[in-house]
Amino acid sequence: MQGNLNNIYYLSLLVTFILSLFLRFKRKKREQEFIYIYLFITIINDVIISKTQLISQNISIFVYTLLSTGYFFSIYYGKFKIKFIKYLILVVTAAFIVFGFVNQFKIGFQILNINFLFGLAVFYIILTLCWFFQRIIDANNRKISRDFIFWLSCAMLLWGCFFIFRIIPTYLFDSRDPSFLIIIQNIFTGINILTYWIVFYGLIKTVIKS
């Protein structure tokens, strides 16, 4: 079952990437916030490096996490108009990166720091909730569903919440209850698939139809 879910995940990721690339270079659409860059990096990490083992998986995940953090920070930070939120996001991002570097290099790359991975999920949750908060109090005439960031935020919030649900049992049940861990992994793979289909739908609804 896990193999089939992985194949569906790879297909979902690839289809979403192809659509985003088509919209950017064929139709010259810029509303998608250069999501194709993030999707391309994800393909390199989740498919190419994961399959070929060109470098250590722990190193690739660490680098991928930092690149993802930088990408989403650059996308969201400029959209915040409330000074407190801008300051909060800047502090959270800086603290997460510094914390990640210091702790990971302290223990080496034989294992991946669970707190670093947990911090990524928390970063996504804080980032998206701040955007939703600002969007609610600073509502304009444009429907929120017509904004690609809305769909991206929904996908990130969903992923962040379920990633916390995924990462904690990994360390609690890895040796105690492997069968339960497999169930959790399958559920999270399903969430990954749903996440990219949300992004795919967001591209169709907000970019193609705009």
TrEMBL record:
<feature type="transmembrane region" description="Helical">
    <location>
        <begin position="6"/>
        <end position="23"/>
    </location>
</feature>
<protein>
    <recommendedName>
        <fullName>YhhN-like protein</fullName>
    </recommendedName>
</protein>
<feature type="transmembrane region" description="Helical">
    <location>
        <begin position="61"/>
        <end position="77"/>
    </location>
</feature>
<feature type="transmembrane region" description="Helical">
    <location>
        <begin position="180"/>
        <end position="204"/>
    </location>
</feature>
<feature type="transmembrane region" description="Helical">
    <location>
        <begin position="84"/>
        <end position="102"/>
    </location>
</feature>
<keyword id="KW-1133">Transmembrane helix</keyword>
<feature type="transmembrane region" description="Helical">
    <location>
        <begin position="114"/>
        <end position="136"/>
    </location>
</feature>
<feature type="transmembrane region" description="Helical">
    <location>
        <begin position="35"/>
        <end position="55"/>
    </location>
</feature>
<feature type="transmembrane region" description="Helical">
    <location>
        <begin position="148"/>
        <end position="168"/>
    </location>
</feature>
<keyword id="KW-0812">Transmembrane</keyword>
<keyword id="KW-0472">Membrane</keyword>
